[in-house]
Design brief:
Layout lengths: L3 E4 L5 E4 L1 H10 L7 E4 L6 E4 H10 L6 H10 L4 E6 L12 H10 L10
Antiparallel strand pairs: 1-2, 1-5, 3-4, 4-5
Helix pairs in contact: 2-3
Bound molecules: zinc ion.
Zinc ion binds next to loops.
């Protein structure tokens, strides 16, 4: 089961199960230092690629760190997007430009994609 999904602007994804996600959030201080914009009600967020790499470099080892570093290294833009797969959240209180950017990035991989 996927708990947190990391996706870049190319649609490349790294999926973490609940154990991996909990461990990652613990060793990275909940990704706070790399967060550009986040939903106040769940763990969905926009991350700065460079700051994420720094956080992972400095954090204790994590078994998915290399996957995440590779995703960060190959990201076509400066941002990565985290989708909280466990939350039933509509992100109504997430009101800044980061939310728009996040929506655009994650919608193809979202739970109910709407294609024309
Ligand atoms: Zn939310």
């Amino acid at each position: 089961m996927t708990d947190l999904t990391f996706v870049d602007d190319d649609g490349e994804v790294v999926e973490l199960d609940p154990d991996e996600a909990a461990g990652l959030l613990e060793i990275t201080g909940a990704l706070e230092a790399a967060t550009v914009s986040a939903c106040p009600d769940c763990r969905s967020r926009v991350l700065a690629v460079v700051a994420l790499s720094d956080l992972l470099d400095e954090a204790p080892p994590h078994r998915r760190a290399n996957d995440l570093l590779a995703l960060a290294d190959d990201a076509p833009t400066l941002h990565l997007y985290v989708i909280d797969g466990a939350a039933r959240c509509e992100h109504r209180r997430w009101r800044d430009p980061g939310h728009e950017e996040w929506l655009e990035a994650v919608s193809p991989a979202g739970p109910a994609p709407r294609r024309p």
